[in-house]
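Researcher: Structure prediction, please.
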Amino acid sequence: MKLGYLIVPAASIIALTSCQFNRNQTTGEFDDTQANTLIEMQAEDDLNKSKAILYTLPSPIEIASIIKESDVKYDEDLLNNISNSERYTSGLKMALNLGIYSSDMSLASMFNQSQKTVEYLNSLKSLSSRLGIAQLIDDETISRLESKGTTKDEMLDIISEVYMKINNYLTENNRKNVATMVLVGGWTEGLYVALNIADVNADKNRLLAERIIGQKMALNTVIDIIESTPNAENDQDLIYLKGKMNEIKVILDEVHLETNGQITTETDAENHLTIIHASKVNGISAEILTLLRDKVNEIRAEFIK
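Model: Predicted structure follows.
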């Protein structure tokens, strides 16, 4: 089988490490030019490492595509109501729901819900404005999405572009904690929707069930990203999110992956795609699925409250 995950572009973390600087032989002081150069080189190296880590995570577009492929019906009631966006005032809630609405917008677009897609983009613009990044979603972008001549593929390209711009900006402007929150919100929403439309006893949803199992590996990466975000051990929002992700992990740890061959990965850096190859993945019991769904529903309810 083939499990394909798109990179979440440049989202979330740069794990800064210490640098060694030489003192001036004459004055005994640090060489500022050398120090600045080393800092820039280290930052670039850490950003590249962050991108590599994120290759294993599904983007909102990928999650929506998986759900669409599973031959299920679009259920707007599962998505976070657009009217809720105005009640998010804390940085945590705004960032989480920026990720959640990105996931919901992708799903609406995948199911050809053009008007709903535009409404979600407007909600993203509102949240982005309150987070101080309004310039990343301009009127031109909204007009492109609203155009009657815009195809579904073009809409998905626009959504990917918006998501990429948001995550790139946050990561490169020393707001990596916010980028991490956006990522957690988007990942949780995708898992929430998948769990609430999946029926592992139905053959048509077998692919979706396998993708849910695959999130066991993705969750480990999500937790690593939270832990690697600078000052994560002192950031109460990140401590809270790590605790919630570990609650999900306790249940997913009961799912045991089995293959009859070696698991290999194939990375396509140009297209930002990593494919995980395994000849067989086992199923997930109805009991575990129910526990997982209940826990994710509980956490997602907190995120959108």
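Model: Residues 261 and 279 are 6 Å apart (CA to CA).
Researcher: Thanks, that helps.
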